[in-house]
Predict the structure.
Amino acid sequence: MYTAGAWPQNRRITISDLQAATDRGERWSMLTSYDVLTAGIFEQAGVRALLVGDTSAELVLGHDSTLPVTMDQLITMVRAVVAGTRTALVVADLPFGAYQAGPEVAFANAVRHLKEGGAQAVKLEGGRRVLPQVRTLTAAGIPVMGHLGLTPQSVNVLGGMRRVQGRGDAGEELLADARALEQAGAFAVVLESVPAELGGRVSGALRIPTVGIGAGPLCDAQILVWQDMAGLTSGRLPRFVKQYADLHGELLAAASRYVGEVADGSYPDQVHSYA
Ligand code: KIV
């Protein structure tokens, strides 16, 4: 099991622990998680923070974008992830529609994630346009993680999910957004699908940690969607996805063997039956 640095063993990791790790130059990992069992496994592996992301709309609920997942659905998953962990910091995504209208609605929904879900922080997408929300939440003691670059909740204005963001002049805009989020009190910023050079530039410009997903090796931390990381998803995946296992193949083989053994009568055998 990977261990490094001085991470708490008997309490939840806080945003100060994440900042301290970044300050001492230690890179740390995040994964998404939406359920009790994977949450526990990832924490045991040394993943310091778990994101209950709106990607659950696609990967858990079967929608074709992140937009449909609701606060109630996410809160159920946040509770499960909190229940499965003791030390990992749990970040709950604010889904589409839960914060865009302004600070008041953002505050009400963020409070639900902390009170009903038990999360320690929330994440929202966008830069300068969501600063009032970020200021309101952080002033109320709710840690906020920003999200820049490819922001899937804006799929309909981005004109589809074109992958790489922040090329050319857009890079300067993204840097300005990142600085503004830091100033408004965000404790970290996710950078999704941006050139590695820009990932490095933003990381160098900010004191708070950058969490890269397709943003190159110079970010302070990395995050992947767990089903991508573990090879449960298949087909055409973004270039930045590295699959560390073949869960799709493993599960398919296991389920096929089970089906075969039920069909040929070899399961259940005596060992798996009550005398
Ligand atoms: O919702 C999510 O899973 C995310 C990650 C892709 C960063 O926002």
Residues 15-244 form a domain with the TIM Barrel fold (CATH 3.20.20.60). The mean pLDDT is 96. The longest helix spans residues 247-264.
